[in-house]
Amino acid sequence: MCRWMAWHGQPVLVEELLFKPEHGLIDQSLHSRMGAETTNGDGFGLGWYGTGEGPGVYRSIEPAWGDANLRHLAGHIESPLFLAHVRATSGTAIQETNCHPYDHGRWLFVHNGLINEFHELRRELMLAVDPALFADIQGSTDSELLFYLALTNGLEEDPLAALERTIGFVEAMADRHGIEHAVQASIGVSDGERLWAVRYSTEGRSRTLFASADAHALKQLHPENPRLQRLRDDDRLVVSEPFADLPGAWHEIPEATALTVLPGGTHELRPFRPLAG
Amino acid sequence: MCRWMAWHGQPVLVEELLFKPEHGLIDQSLHSRMGAETTNGDGFGLGWYGTGEGPGVYRSIEPAWGDANLRHLAGHIESPLFLAHVRATSGTAIQETNCHPYDHGRWLFVHNGLINEFHELRRELMLAVDPALFADIQGSTDSELLFYLALTNGLEEDPLAALERTIGFVEAMADRHGIEHAVQASIGVSDGERLWAVRYSTEGRSRTLFASADAHALKQLHPENPRLQRLRDDDRLVVSEPFADLPGAWHEIPEATALTVLPGGTHELRPFRPLAG
Amino acid sequence: MCRWMAWHGQPVLVEELLFKPEHGLIDQSLHSRMGAETTNGDGFGLGWYGTGEGPGVYRSIEPAWGDANLRHLAGHIESPLFLAHVRATSGTAIQETNCHPYDHGRWLFVHNGLINEFHELRRELMLAVDPALFADIQGSTDSELLFYLALTNGLEEDPLAALERTIGFVEAMADRHGIEHAVQASIGVSDGERLWAVRYSTEGRSRTLFASADAHALKQLHPENPRLQRLRDDDRLVVSEPFADLPGAWHEIPEATALTVLPGGTHELRPFRPLAG
Amino acid sequence: MCRWMAWHGQPVLVEELLFKPEHGLIDQSLHSRMGAETTNGDGFGLGWYGTGEGPGVYRSIEPAWGDANLRHLAGHIESPLFLAHVRATSGTAIQETNCHPYDHGRWLFVHNGLINEFHELRRELMLAVDPALFADIQGSTDSELLFYLALTNGLEEDPLAALERTIGFVEAMADRHGIEHAVQASIGVSDGERLWAVRYSTEGRSRTLFASADAHALKQLHPENPRLQRLRDDDRLVVSEPFADLPGAWHEIPEATALTVLPGGTHELRPFRPLAG
User: Fold this and answer.
1) Per-residue pLDDT band at D227 (split at 50, 70, 90)
2) Cβ distance A244 to A227 under 8 Å?
3) What are the tens digits of pLDDT across the range B226-276?
4) In this predicted complex, what is the ipTM?
5) C-alpha distances in angstroms, A97 versus A48, A195, B102, B131, C187?
6) How far is Cα B236 from Cα B257, in angstroms, rounded to an integer?
């Protein structure tokens, strides 16, 4: 059910990380190894910061592996911060407005996971969205709704606190409806300067999430790999599942944990604890 | 802003009415003469009754004039009752879930027009949808919401009364928000046996709507037209704007009026009067 | 690299065979077990005979598993003879004109396999197409070209002989270019009355192909299966790989063999021997 | 039948010229005033030079006016040289491989017009393509074939001479077939440094084509227009029909004439005279 990746570091051509790594995200769209589904072919999206105001976004309902435009764009867009996502729908329609990343102002949001029994909770969750934001909801996914609830809960001021409030709110509502395992999530968020990544699920068995190790250690480990030799200390990659050509390069983000990456590459992990309403 | 047609009568190949008439609906998708927009190229849909349970539906976001599949389907689907719609968006996304006809159980629904200042009213209108129906809303249009409000208001028991309640409700809400000209509408509805068509707008200047005249009169008027000579007394066609090859064949449906067509071709006009909530 | 199925028998709703069987073609589009590729998500097509002149065709570049229109059409189109195909491209563009079945007049054609080193042979093969047919070639696949070469070689008079000449011609040309394993193919062809299925490859290791067993034997084998109990003696199903819910129901079509199914269900196997030029 | 534009000058966000001008290309996709067709909704394409190797290309079969991705890309891609095209098909399939600009190596090519009776000439024209290039032809349009014939005739060495040879060749072939008015064309070509624009038709009544006037004159003419005040002497815009907000800004390129724009903005007109084969 979806795979994603995020880059925060030196400006690179998107294709360097999207297409060229062995078992990169495009390969994962066909052959995911750690995902709930092998195939992530129900659309995809790329959101990037660079030239122009706010993030650029390209979304399509075709499988990422076969999209000729994505290949062209990835080879001609350079960015110091981008997120990409390949989708496997859990039931909602296959349409561009249901493809990640979702954007709002300067913000991008990707999600791998689900709200359990979403069909039953959808209405009540929508009512909790700030009325001033409500009419901007364009698609029909649980993921987009999580984004709008997080915006309602202050994402733009304190992203992690807003996500903790949002997920706590969903868990409390699910609880009232007798629904177990309310939220399953790995989430990526950015405002164009910072990057946040969260791994959390109500049942404590979350989708996988990994961050790249220090460039220095990686270069020593793989002196023969030119891609790694170009890495700088402030480069950071976050992925649903590791690229195959970087063994030893990944730290698994623990359960119920949030990663923050700041400009300059400073990064820190801290516990992620949903707050009930 | 959209054009549509509906057929109720003897079983015909869809192409007979969709593609073959001069200035038929496909031509209107490129060159509408009476619509608010000349071009209706933001997707289309065909809903028909025939083989299989409930209505079949084919929707696409490509312009109707160029869709190779539509041409094929129209040449191979026969139906005694179908509705077709070409769309010109008033701002909501171009995606299949925003294409008419909308379907629910045995029901089909098409709409030409709009809810004024929909962005402002959307949330409140959605709250008025029956919670048991809410999660089935798939798209983001004002038209689909009108359909779900009508279902909430008893469309399946008394379609015209439900539409009068629905439009009255929207007008009352718009009034509270200081919004003028709340609803602009020509609407087609069917349950597979009967067909209803409504022409109404708050400002009293509604989109055009026409019904075909009696077969008998038409045959006398155009003894040379083979298409007309095949018409039977119980055949009825409703269109946003007349097909060019049937001069004299059309009765304009008056302002604030509803047409009902019953099995056997019985039909009647009656006033359409929205009821405030 | 592609999976297909064909039905020749009593009129059925397409969904009965396309969606309802366990591990049917739609499931094979996601999880093929015997194909060269697990995923067949690069478009699909359905061609059927029934109402209207010649075959109806619906093709799309979206994966078959997620296409809302296909689900609707399959539930509302009834046919005594249809072919369906899910595609995994071997390199040519993902576009409707590259989706099977290809149609010409009353004829439908599906192919699973490839012409080896097609890029090198394409021009010479195209030159061999009847100039009167040439301009009707719409796509860019090796499969469509096989179809047009077979039409050139008399497909409409004697399909199996035409296919033997066509494949023999391709093999001879590949030989001149020093290309091994020229053709890999399972092919389905119909004119709306008869159905032909061929299993052949130059190297003698062809893609799998199966035909359903006699209805009588099947009913005795699975008295509990209502789908099978509805089978009639003249019903025949041909598939790239067996549906899971019909164990014992399938006869593998041997290497280098052609199956012919005639109206009334008469069927026969005979060797398939390409004829050099 | 198609509209296009090309920019050669200072780096600009694509949206500045594609979306912001009154009656710019996107508006022309809906409401062309000078084209053979009012609507150009059968797909579009954007090709640009900038970051990355060779040109980037984005093509889609949806109408340009409604494509959310195009709007995003235009707002986030900056380029000193780009071509955009909106398509109205003269019969060939609506698919991405039929959308302009076509690309080959560093080269981009757009065309407005047609080869008359293309269906009859297609095979013979394809045979004239360099066999080494043949297999790269991906679509089925007359325009792509003109591009490949021009490549065959030396486009990469001397573009205008190659186009003269190509069109002369087509005219001679049409003549042999008794086909009048062989070629109708406005053509844009670039290698990423230079831009060529040709206006020519066999019958001497070519599609319109305009180039922008000197920046200096324009600034004096419209001191109140901030877009114009940003223009530099070396900026040059070529368009099928003028943008409405720049009256006096355009020079019509005469019949049978070719424009060359060099780096630095040097530009010159010269006669365009097809050479018979």
Assistant:
1) confident
2) no
3) 777 888 888 999 999 988 766 678 899 999 999 999 998 889 999 999 987
4) 0.93
5) 17, 23, 18, 23, 39
6) 17
The alpha-carbon radius of gyration of chain D (Å, integer) is 18
Query: D185 with D4: CB under 8 angstroms?
Result: no
Contacts of A42 in chain C (CB under 8 A): 63, 66
- What tokens does B112 get? 């030409």
CA-nearest of D141, D224, D223, D229 to D185 is: D141
Omega before B101 within 30 of 0, i.e. cis: yes
CA distance A209 to D271: 63
The helix, strand and coil proportions of chain D, stated in percent and rounded to the nearest 5, come to 30, 30, 45
Q: Is D25 in a helix, a strand, or coil?
A: helix
- List, in order, residues 6 or more apart from A137 with CB less than 8 Å away: A126, A129, A144, A145, A148, B140
- At C277, the pLDDT band (50, 70, 90 cuts) reads low
Residues of A in contact with D77 (CB under 8 A): 51-52, 56, 76-77
Region for B44 from its dihedrals, namely left if φ exceeds 0, alpha if ψ lies in -120 to 50, beta otherwise: beta
Give the Cα separation of B93 and B87 in Å (integer): 11
Contact B199, B206 (CB under 8 A): yes
Alpha helices (H) along B177-213? none
B88 CB-near residues (< 8 Å, 6+ apart): B1, B2, B35, B36, B37, B39, B40, B41, B42
Q: Which subunits have 3 or more CB–CB pairs within 8 Å of chain C?
A: A, B, D
**D232/A205 Cα distance (integer angstroms):** 60
In total, chain B counts a number of residues equal to 277
**CA torsion, points B175, B177, B180, B182, in degrees to nearest 10?**
-70
Q: Angle CA(A37)–CA(A40)–CA(A45) in degrees, nearest 5? A: 145
Instruction: Determine the length of chain A.
Output: 277
What lies within 8 Å, CB to CB, of B261 at 6+ separation is: B8, B194, B195, B196, B197, B236, B238, B267
Of the residues D13, D16, D51, the best mutation for testing chain A's interface (the one with the most A CB atoms within 10 Å of its CB) is D51
B73 chain-C contacts, CB cut-off 8 A = 56, 58, 73
CB-CB contact of A2 with A85 (8 Å): yes
C263: which 2 tokens?
Answer: 């109206």
Q: Cβ contact (<8 Å) for C41 and A38?
A: no
Using alpha carbons, select from B10, B48, B37, B19 the residue that is nearest to residue B207: B37
Residue D243: its pLDDT value, please?
84
Give yes or no for a contact between A260 and A163, defined as CB atoms under 8 angstroms apart. no
Q: State the average pLDDT for chain A.
A: 92
| Minimal CA separation from C230 to chain B, in Å | 17
Provide CB contacts within 8 A for B59, sequence distance 6+: B43, B44, B45, B46, B96, B99, B100, C68, C69
Contact A41 C39 (CB under 8 A): yes
- CA C274, CA C169: separation in Å to the nearest integer? 8
CA separation for the pair D246, D210 (Å, rounded): 12
Residue D46 corresponds to which tokens in the numbers above?
């954007």
Which residue blocks in D194-233 are alpha helix, DSSP H? 215-221, 226-229
Distances (CA, A) of D133 to A10, D152, D153: 38, 8, 12
Chain B residues with CB within 8 Å of chain C CB: 13, 48, 50-53, 55-60, 68-69, 72-73, 75-78, 96
pTM over 0.80: yes
Chain-centroid distance, C-alpha D137 = 19
List residues bridging with A257 in a β-sheet.
Answer: A199, A271
